[in-house]
Design brief:
Number of strands: 17
CATH topology of the largest domain: Dihydrodipicolinate Reductase, domain 2
Structural class: alpha/beta
Oligomer: single chain
Strand content: 15-25%
Mean pLDDT: 95
Strand order of the largest sheet: 16-15-14-13-7-12-11-8-17
Radius of gyration: 21 Å
Number of domains: 2
Largest sheet: 9 strands, mixed
CATH superfamily of the largest domain: Dihydrodipicolinate Reductase, domain 2
Distance between the termini: 41 Å
């Protein structure tokens, strides 16, 4: 039985807690958990953690989570700029730690966290790796079904920051959230490319902030909150948009874009892979569909839609048959299930902080390129 402590009880802290509660109902072979203690500064969240989620206790002091003798593993879902201190403390206590991406708000912080946690099991919330059809896409690529891969296109377009009246939450402030879409969105996009195709060696890129100020939030406003036209405003201090061209170590050429202020795509975390014998594409907005094109000696050509179903990894634990869809939080269940298994078996978990470090090395090169206007090597 793994005693769980959760630090930060916003959306993702709650999502992980729900996932840990659901695991016994979905996976017969599992490492059982108990929700021991939750830390959050807001009293109503602490009350909800105990009343609705079944935590044994709640506290406003995160140290009480890490120091608790009945906590065996720690989940960090606090704002980005708090990650490093929490991770370092959990690692110093010898406890496995799962941290939401990007593990810090800057590349330097991620590097600190990775160095601190080398002697404990670490996990990072790159949950899109666990989508059953993403797992299948990786298999098609590895098996050579698409031939030699030549091109990759990754993007994460989200509208959560497209409203100029969206409040100035911590996500829009470099001192609280670190970098903007490079940390929040592009980290996912590039991590999937690493998962599918391997490392990136050099990049050229650009960043921009399209909405320079936003209404100040009332109390603990989130990036989904909305102010009024006459509300006092504050400056946005990190980027709304990032784009880059890149080269992979394998020779594949790639393009990436991420935006939180774009209008149209609601949550378009998507990729396309192009090879000499075929191509494929996946989009979070239709996460139960994979588009596959294969070069064949037939008169009819074009992409075919592969529907998710119980013939793909994990899917059948949630619903049987084909085209019966799973959702976002089901991916969180899968990653928490796999992390708990790694903790119980005392073995490394992937993606861990090493994979987070892979991304921030690319991020660092992108940010250098945005300043220099030149191609920059991934160090």
């Amino acid at each position: 039985m793994i005693g769980v402590g959760v630090i930060g009880f916003g959306w993702l802290g709650q999502a992980h807690s729900r996932s840990l509660l659901r695991i016994p109902t979905l996976f017969p072979e599992r490492a059982d958990t108990r929700l021991v203690v939750c830390a959050d500064p807001l009293p109503e969240r602490r009350e909800d953690a105990v009343r609705s989620f079944g935590f044994e206790r709640a506290t406003d002091d995160w140290r009480a989570v890490i120091d608790a003798p009945d906590v065996d593993a720690v989940w960090v879902a606090a704002p980005n700029m708090l990650h490093v201190e929490l991770v370092e403390a959990a690692a110093a206590a010898g406890k496995p730690v799962f941290c939401e991406k990007p593990v810090g708000g800057t590349p330097e912080q991620t590097a600190r966290a990775e160095a601190a946690a080398r002697d404990v099991i670490s996990g990072v919330g790159y949950n899109y790796r666990w989508a059953p059809l993403v797992q299948y896409a990786r298999r098609l690529i590895a098996d050579g079904v698409l031939g030699e891969i030549t091109n990759y296109r990754g993007r994460f377009f989200s509208m959560y920051g497209s409203d100029p009246l969206g409040v100035l939450s911590w996500r829009f402030l470099v001192d609280e959230g670190g970098y903007g879409v490079t940390s929040d969105l592009m980290s996912h996009s590039v991590d999937l490319a690493h998962f599918l195709l391997g490392p990136i060696t050099r990049v050229v890129g650009t960043t921009a902030t399209f909405i320079p100020e936003r209404p100040l939030p009332v109390a603990a406003g989130t990036h989904y909150g909305r102010g009024a036209p006459d509300d006092p405003k504050g400056a946005v201090t990190n980027e709304d948009y990032a784009g880059m061209l890149c080269e992979f170590a394998s020779g594949v050429r790639g393009t990436f874009e991420a935006s939180r202020s774009i209008v149209g795509p609601e949550s378009q975390m998507a990729f396309e892979v192009y090879g000499t014998k075929g191509a494929l594409g996946w989009n979070l907005e239709t996460l139960n569909e994979l588009q596959v094109y294969l070069v064949e000696d037939e008169l009819h050509t074009g992409y075919r839609t592969v529907f998710g179903g119980d013939r793909f990894p994990y899917h059948g634990h949630f619903v049987p048959g084909s085209a019966n869809g799973i959702g976002f939080e089901d991916l969180v269940v899968i990653e928490d299930y796999e992390f708990c298994r790694a903790v119980a078996e005392e073995r490394p978990f992937v993606p861990g902080f090493g994979e987070a470090l892979q991304w921030v090395r690319v991020q660092e090169a992108l940010l250098r390129s945005a300043e220099s206007g030149r191609w920059e090597d991934v160090r």
